[in-house]
Design a protein that fits this description.
3 domains; six-stranded parallel sheet
Amino acid sequence: MNPSTAFGRVLVDELVRGGVTDAVLAPGSRSAPVALALAAAERAGRLRLHVRIDERTAAFLALGLAKASGLPVPVLTTSGTAAAHLHAAVLEADASGVPLLALTADRPPELRGTGANQTIDQPGLYGGAVRWSADVGVPEAGREAPQNRYWRSLAARALLTATGALSGDPGPVHLNLALREPLLPDDEPPGELSAPWAGRPEGRPWTEAAPAHESPAPSVGRPRRTLVVAGDGAAVTGRIAAETARAFGWPVLAEPSSGAWSGAVRGGVLLLGVPGWLAQHRPDHVVVLGRPTLARSVSALLADSDVLVETMAGAPRWPDTARSTALVGRGLGAARPIDPVSSEWLEVWQDAAARVGAAVDALLDETGSLSAPRLARDVVAALPRGALLVLGSSTPVRDVDRVAVPRGDVRVLANRGVAGIDGTISTAIGAAVAHGRRPAFALMGDLTFLHDLTGLLTGHGEPVPDLTVIVPDNDGGGIFAQLEPGEERHQQDYPRVFGTPHGRDLVAVARSLGWAASAVADPGELAGALGLGGPRVVVVRTDQRGDAALAQALRDAAARAL
């Protein structure tokens, strides 16, 4: 085998040995040795290969696959601007702790800095957003055995670092792959690798991580009036905290994508937004899991100097936007022991949530139309057991957080690491593929949908999951109508600078890209539309100003109910 072909086959073999089951590529010339090795591995039944024409779409597809499966997923590009298009997904993977492998083909050193075609400075391209990066040495003839050890060790280290096997801090890794011509294989067909290109016996990885020791059980002593706040990405610590919360009678406020939504207090952010009620029922101890980013009322609580904030971190990095964390640890044993709380503490929160929930439901039902908040509530309620729901950043995830009834039989994901709207369709498709044959759904705003239209282009022969994308279409950036830019004093510039109406028929747009699509206007039609199966787009026309007014009305209704 020529050196580049040998490298591609060894690299892919070691990735599969290390647990890779899915890989994504965007076509290119310089990446051909690895691309062909991935295709051969798919033919041999060793992994699933996904191909996209757009590198940004490919990267977010890989992100969704990794986010839903928990397994490392490589995304392969050619050199130049193709590598730059992975950056947004790398940033999201960094902030979300997702094991994404960015494999960027590159020109060899002698062509760098010479003005050679499709060449940029790729080593270190993603800066501090990656857990580790390596500019891989160029494959050469005559050094087969030492190169085999080097390549396999490198791939194993990349996987162990991406999964956080030793650090407890999973995230993206970048391998920059400098390759010389010839880039296409000689005539020999791909087969099982033998000496000098062989891996460990019995298909084992070149390097494995030793089993981790179990964390000690949390102590029993707890402060009174403890509240658990779970943000995005709390799944690692959420199970332990949820069990502890149940044992000690602690209420849980959990964002939909936290992994701890089951059993959470419904509409907890509305409760925190009622000053009079909160003054009487303010917790004196808050345990934080994941990254809470959705609600200002939660941020205000965490910034309260009278509240002891303890952060339960599953990794060496922990969120602390209010700079208020007094205690941080991987377990819950650090809090100061105070008299245990009575059962009334949890009952107070449950009763308040029930009253607010009834007021919210009455207000949403009396409108008689599918506003964005009602759509969020009704979509969650209509999902079948075992479904996957991917939420777009911006308004949809906040609407679900405010008004939906939490469900433990539905898995909810969102790109809340950096909270961008880009790549959401691709993320949803990747997550849906990893979810298997069970139905998957995505709820995202119209601009989020338009931002990633290339995600709908799945290509010939590519797996298309049972995914239904629900789009509340308010003709622009409706979230700004609910924030300060939506105030009356900014109306002169609001439509052009913030509202950004697009004026497009999203049903026609979806159909033009090969997806079945329909519009739903009546609440009674929604469940039927969601039951048709995917791939499908369901568009619901809403109103920016109406939804903003309704958001305020929901806060007022919560205050009256309490």
